[in-house]
Amino acid sequence: WEEYVYLRGRNPIMVNSNYYGMDFLYVTPTTKQAARAGNTITALLLYRRKINREELKPSRVPGTVVPLCAAQCERMFNSTCTPGEETDTLKHWEDSEFVAVHHRGRYFRLWVYSHGRLLSPREIQHQIQKILDDPSVPSPGEERLGALTAGNRVPWARVRKQYFSSGVNKRSLDCIEKAAFFVTLDDEEEGMKGDDPSGNLDRYAKSLLHGKCYDRWFDKSFSVVIFKNGKTGLNAEHSWADAPTVAHLWEFTLATDASQLGYDANGNCRGEVQRCLLPPQRLSWDISSEVQEQINESLVVARALADDVDCHVFPFSVFGKGSIKKLKISPDAFIQISLQLAYYRDHGGFCLTYEASMTRLFREGRTETVRSCSKESCAFVLALEAKEEREQCISLLRKAAEKHQNLYKLAMTGSGVDRHLFCLYVVSKYLGVESPFLSEVLSEPWRLSTSQTPVQQMELFDLINHPEFISLGGGFGPVADDG
Fold first, then answer.
1. Residue 466 has what pLDDT?
2. Which residues are paired to 81 by β-bridges?
3. Is the pLDDT score of 345 beyond 90?
């Protein structure tokens, strides 16, 4: 699954595969960019420490003591997806004492340990501020270098092999790929602000999904973005893990940043700064004209892809999952049926619909498909649109919700359909046996592709008394050209 669905794809992973996570909706703990970076980087490294020390409690099926497989956490840090001409490769290193930082087209190595000691948040803020204050300009070809990770994979693989396999380019690329993670210090201000909060949320989401197409390093397991006004977010590469695993990391990071590490009255990180810290190291590059030409070509491809994404993010506060539960309907089923209704009203028909279900009840489980466009959901939508009797519509809604819940349980417990068909397809290719049925089934487009990411996987927030600490969650790009 990992190889054929993610690593063998030759199209850009930006938008097509990578996904994003967002900051708090209503709260920004500090407006100082360097300070927010200091606490965020510290929180992420504390999470890595928990993984390394095996102190991280396994996630469980909500409301039960049944644990979920935690294998996806193993490659969360110190990992990258390297391009190849036929297939990409996931590389993971046991440890890394630095992070890679991008600011205004320049790349830096930032040491986050000193003689085995994790730097304090204030020390990391101090080091980040040095990068922000650095007046140097990008070297030729450096500013848009990240576009290579945003374009098609084969050109990037060829350029990497020819121009980044030795010398200064290899040393600098190694610093990025072997870093604990990637950090972008963005010059823009994002979040729900100003006279057009909804429009700004759209821009915020697109910034995290693709940015300028060259100011993120899309190959890294995840890239953290710290905006000028203190807002944060992340972009995650998809092959090594699915969104709930990254959401767990991000929830821990936000909670640790805001409620445990905290800030002083001036918005700075807490802690002292030792004077003997290694300064951030500016990475050097020798970018030839041939490489610059490929950078420009990759940027054209990436920008066309980014410009083709329509994204709308909005907070919905009319009612929440609590109200739905009081009606004795699954919130997930309610949302999925609502999406069927919305799609029907928009397109005048139904389409093949994908909802991801996790299969982490099994060792190294990833996902299974819930085909949420069912006969029952279609019957409800048609009855509602035909203005059938209220009681009839309610009855059909409950039947559709029950059907959806059953489909989800089957997928979650290994009785789904799509991964079985996928396995048969892989075996048929290996044996050289053509199967028109499998070829047709697996080529059908998912014009409506959906996913739910759990919130509050850990009891770190009191959202009842402090609803302002709700996060915007995250999202991903369309998986079909007309989806």
1. 76
2. 90
3. yes
pLDDT digits (tens, 9 = 90+) for 450-465: 988 766 666 677 777 7
Q: What is the pTM of this model?
A: 0.94
> What is the C-alpha to C-alpha distance for residues 253 and 26, in angstroms, rounded to an integer?
17
CB contact at 8 A, 1 and 422? yes
Token code pair at residue 20: 């994003």
Q: What is the pLDDT of residue 457?
A: 61
| Whether residue 238 lies in the annotated active site | yes
Q: Mean pLDDT across the chain, nearest whole number?
A: 93
Query: Under a CB-based contact definition with an 8 Å cutoff, are residues 371 and 352 in contact?
Result: yes
Q: What is the pLDDT of residues 284-301, one digit of tens each?
A: 999 999 999 999 999 999
Q: Which member of 103, 126, 238, 248 is catalytic?
A: 238
Give dist(CA 435, CA 428) in Å, integer.
7
Q: Mind listing the domains of the chain with CATH numbers? A: 2-307 (3.30.559.70), 321-452 (3.30.559.10)
Is 96 in contact with 179 (CB distance < 8 Å)?
yes
What CA–CA distance (Å, rounded) separates 120 from 117? 9
